Amino acid sequence: MKLQLWRNATLLLNIDGISILVDPMLGEKGSLGKFPMVDNELLNPLVDLPFGKEELNQKLKNVDAVAVTHLHPDHWDTTAIELLDKNIPIICSSLISEQIAEYGFTDIIALNDSVQWRNIEITTTKGQHGTGEIGEKRGIVNGFVFKTENKSVYIAGDSIWYNEIAQEIEKHQPQHIIVAGGAATFLVGDPIIMTSEDIIKVCEYAPEATVWVTHLESVSHCKEDRKFIQEKINENRLEKRCFILNDGEEVELHF
């Protein structure tokens, strides 16, 4: 398997030659504008994709399916809706399948639990996008586990560390876990995705797994950058199994 971070939460996962694009935010730098309830005037996304339009279009032609964890614009933007082939399989929770269909997509694989697609078992997982009132306003989010034979990759999605994440790890025993870091926070409330402390908890709870950190330096409400999180990883002596992906970086997932 191979994994490439495009930007933020947008990932390309290649499983035995099958390419799955996860959470496509494909617009140009600044195309989402200013986020509400943040302490800055920055326009999102903060950075461009690590390749130009021509290469993007070529990459999209080679995508076999798209997996969407939730419909917040930094995971599913209007540019993605415009550029993606309307006949491409869209893998998502049944809770958002009707809304995706309204955008004109015709091949929607709506999950309540698990589905076998080609040679891949795909399972939807729970997430918690913050706590209290902010968490409720962020709505329901999910992640995915992708399994083939004895290989398992868990994409946790936009979630803080909480009991359900531990339960998903126990249930699926993934060898690779992909988390959203950055401690994104609004003007009120606690972080809505993982802090560096949360990432350390994931590593401690899954001592045999390799952990990959995404969602960094791309949106304006994130408070922790790559340098800060790397320092925390080093302090906890986890640098041999917890890695921060750079935009455009492609890695081989070893099992």
| Helix share bin | 10-25%
User: Roughly how many Å apart are the termini?
Assistant: 9 Å
The CATH H-level homologous superfamily: Ribonuclease Z/Hydroxyacylglutathione hydrolase-like
Main beta sheet, described?
7 strands, mixed
Low-confidence stretches: none
* Order of H and E elements: EEEEEHEHEHEEEHEEHEHEHEE
Please give the order of strands in the largest beta sheet: 8-7-6-3-2-1-16
> From the 3D coordinates, which CATH architecture would you assign?
4-Layer Sandwich
Number of strands: 16
What is the strand content? 25-35%
Q: Helical region count?
A: 7
Question: Tell me, what is the CATH class?
Answer: Alpha Beta
Shape: globular
What is the gyration radius calculated from CA atoms?
Answer: 17 Å
The structural class is alpha/beta
CATH topology: Metallo-beta-lactamase, Chain A
Mean pLDDT: 95
Number of domains: 1
How would you name the oligomeric state of the polypeptide chains in this document?
single chain
Protein name: MBL fold metallo-hydrolase
Domain Metallo-beta-lactamase: 21-215
GO molecular function: hydrolase activity
Keywords: Hydrolase
